Amino acid sequence: MVDEPILRLDHVTKQFPGVRALHDVHMALYPGQVTALLGENGAGKSTIVKILTGIYRPDAGAIHIGGKLQSFSSPRDAWRSGVSAIHQETVMFDDLTVAENIFMGHMPLRSGKRIDWQLMNARAAELLKSVDADFGSEVLLKRLGVAQKHLVEIARALSHDSRIVIMDEPTSALSAREISDLFLIIAQLKAEGRAILFISHKFDEIFRVADRWVCLRDGEHVGEGLIKDVEPRGLVKLMVGRPIDQVFPKKKIEIGEPVLEVVGLSNPTEFADVSFTLHKGEILGFYGLVGAGRSETMQALFGVSKATAGVVKLNGKTLAISSTADAIVSGIAYVPEDRQVQGTVLPFGIRENTTLASLHQHTDKGILSRVSEQKITRKLGGRLSVKAAHWEQRLNELSGGNQQKVVIAKWLATSPKILILDEPTKGIDVGSKAAVHEFMGELASEGLAVILISSELPEIMGMADRIMVMHEGRIVKNFTRAEATAEAIVTAATGGGHHAAA
Ligand SMILES: Nc1ncnc2c1ncn2[C@@H]1O[C@H](COP(=O)(O)OP(=O)(O)OP(=O)(O)O)[C@@H](O)[C@H]1O
Ligand SMILES: [Mg+2]
Prior knowledge:
Blueprint: E1 7-16, E2 19-29, E3 34-38, H1 45-52, E4 60-65, E5 68-70, H2 75-80, E6 83-86, H3 98-102, E7 109-110, E8 114-115, H4 117-130, H5 146-159, E9 164-168, H6 176-191, E10 195-199, H7 203-209, E11 212-217, E12 220-226, H8 232-240, E13 258-266, E14 274-279, E15 283-288, H9 294-301, E16 309-314, E17 317-318, H10 324-329, E18 332-335, H11 339-342, H12 350-354, E19 363-364, E20 367-368, H13 370-383, H14 400-412, E21 418-422, H15 430-445, E22 449-453, H16 457-463, E23 466-471, E24 474-480, H17 486-493
Parallel strand pairs: 3-10, 3-11, 6-9, 9-10, 15-22, 15-23, 18-21, 21-22
Antiparallel strand pairs: 1-2, 1-4, 4-5, 7-8, 11-12, 13-14, 13-16, 16-17, 19-20, 23-24
The chain binds adenosine-5'-triphosphate and magnesium ion.
The site of adenosine-5'-triphosphate (ATP) has 20 residues, from β2, α1 and α14.
């Protein structure tokens, strides 16, 4: 028997000023199956999600659900028709409770008028339990971490009891364990006969979770099929339009003198006694589980937060960094992991965002040179393969992955001596990932010293000269590139190598 789709998208086209985001796209979702939507940054994936959830209206084309033609003019229309989504860019309210966020727009009412708080909190608690959340429904959202907020979003999608659940890069803020939990939830949704649309740049996840795939390139449908009939290689080629070597372009670089020496860096709660030396031309990897203290340590080095003990020396001289401005002046740049919050000014253009942290370099006698700004923007934007209509385009008009590339560009534009990259390729497609890695190697060969925080083993093993493994706020083990094996790194990161490390 041939499966009947629950949702069909036909001949969908969506144009933005200067960009054809989707052109004559078709797609079908099936009950009890996960369909992976593949494509490079800017291919049009999130645009499809926004059309299916009533955020955007297509210029042309049709959506059928259960055989019935639909026309959504708001997100409310979409969830009433059985579609809900976890969006790539979360829209939630920090000052409201978890339950209020889950039931925003569809709070249970008592006798038709007043909100039934008790019922709402109880239902929220049930939903939270079903996603294995470790927090209550009446907690304020701002008290939660990124991964926990993600669970709230999942609970919110479940609260609609939708037949169609869309997940746009749902795993990007989750730890390995949380990803496994999410996959259990997906399995449950499948078993209940729901159709799932799943977007991710990580092939291991796609092959673990999806039954089918649909691939977009430059807003066009370029292929679809069953997951069991394909290999990652074939999908990558289809996405990018050419074969991509996924090997890491590690360059042989002469490691120079120490530039940064960190001794005994500590703060009371997040990291303790962190010591390491970073050399010119070196890529120093930091591996660990989410919560191991890697980002917090680097944020202290960058002046975002304060270390309460320890010494930091730059080129042999003790540094006192009490603000990010101090760090930037000292030649340290930090590309944060949570780029939406920490990295960008969304209503500004690509050029303005790129030069935001290095304006003095483009200023002569107090006058900002737009030509000089444009030059660096073109150069870095090109190297990082930022996809945009033009360099003045506002950041909130770029796809998620392209926004991230602009944040990397912004910190590279400061011409740092030390570059700290926190999960630099998260949310970035395979082709651009290779470009970022290659660029990283080139910068190192020019004498830049790089700290690479990554939770992806292939990335850290492929790029780093040495690997520091952190566990519960401490460096528990370090490996040279030659010594490092995946097992040894993971064992250390989970606390297994603790005693041997001293
Ligand atoms: N509001 C908007 N205004 C103008 N252009 C837009 C807008 N939203 C999206 N675009 C453009 O549409 C194209 C598709 O973007 P979309 O967000 O769908 O990509 P994506 O496949 O989700 O990429 P990513 O993997 O980076 O998330 C991009 O070129 C983007 O710049
Ligand atoms: Mg997207």
